[in-house]
Amino acid sequence: SITFIEGPTFADVGNALQAHDAVSAKFADRSPEETMTALGMPGLHPEGQFFPDTYHFPRGTTDLELLSIAHRRMQTEVQAAWDARAEELPLASAYEAQILASIIEKETALDSERPEIGGVFIERLQRGMRLQTDPTVIYGMMERYDGNIRRADLLRDTPYNTYTRAGLPPTPICMPGRESLRAATQPHMTGALFFVATGQGDGSHYFSKTLAEHHAAV
Description:
This protein is about 45% helix and about 5% strand. The protein is mainly alpha-helical and about 220 residues long. Helix 4 crosses helix 5 (about 115-125). The N and C termini lie far apart (about 45 Å).
């Protein structure tokens, strides 16, 4: 068996497949573009396209076969979440919901918080506010990320910098799980526009409706 947890990138998945002694690594040295073409999806960005779960398989199964199974699962899960979506979401497609779910996935480890974080981002999209979410900045920094985000990084424009660009980034930034997909399509709308880590050590956040309240929480 092999387990893909929620939140890793496509590169992480590739490394896990390559390191598994029961997987036949056929595409370990291929580019992401070549891998997606071999999967029958030329031109599709690989990020976020594979569902996090535990997969059981016969020894000698190829990495491509496992990726194909995980991709079909993701398609099923995304479509199920999209079909059950709330009305009047500012999302144009299931793919946009998948992108938002990947951001929610990286913002919290608490399933109980995901719907409220989804509500913050949906509220911001509805109001035309920028998402201003650090995980997208980190993803856009790629190998330049050293564990810290500096003010210069927030100001440096990339397609994934939601401080400099409005709307959603162009692709998912990780593999979202079922709870994040549900939070993106069935958000808990409280009117909150901001959140910040409480620092209590449990991964929880404090949600604010006004900038003044948010500054006080920070």
